[in-house]
Design a protein that fits this description.
Layout: H1 2-14, H2 16-21, H3 34-46, H4 52-71, H5 77-97, H6 115-123
Length: about 130
């Protein structure tokens, strides 16, 4: 599980250029607890950066992801959930603020944020590799 925390740090550091360039909110990347994440959703909704339906969908995703990861029985599952969801919520907020349209054919974008690596980090706790 320590690799997940390291993965979050590398994913976040890889996105730090984008973070400053876009004046992006640190609401989710600074989250350290479940309460930080949920209150961050409410804050972003209240200030108008997240539409109500998007914030509700993000909260539902959080609870579904948490239940799935906790049911895996993995050590430090709570920390894994908060770590992975903080990055996921940050990327979702960025997508709402600055939508990106992928062409049918495109070259992999690995900078300034490595989505490929993030998806592997996000999905890893949901798969039983035994």
């Amino acid at each position: 599980m320590s690799e997940l925390v390291q993965d979050k740090e590398s994913v976040v550091s890889a996105s730090s250029t984008s973070f400053s360039e876009l004046n992006h909110s640190p609401t989710f990347l600074d989250a350290r607890t479940e309460q930080d994440l949920i209150s961050g959703l409410r804050k972003e909704k209240e200030v108008g950066r997240l539409p109500t339906n998007v914030a509700s969908g993000m909260e539902e995703l959080y609870w579904n992801y948490k239940n799935a990861v906790l049911s895996s029985g993995a050590a430090r599952a709570d920390q894994t959930v908060v770590s992975n969801m903080s990055v996921a919520f940050d990327r979702m907020l960025l997508g709402v603020e600055h939508p990106y349209t992928f062409n049918p054919y495109h070259k992999a974008i690995r900078e300034p944020f490595d989505y490929y690596k993030f998806v592997h980090t996000y999905i890893r706790p949901l798969i039983d590799f035994k």
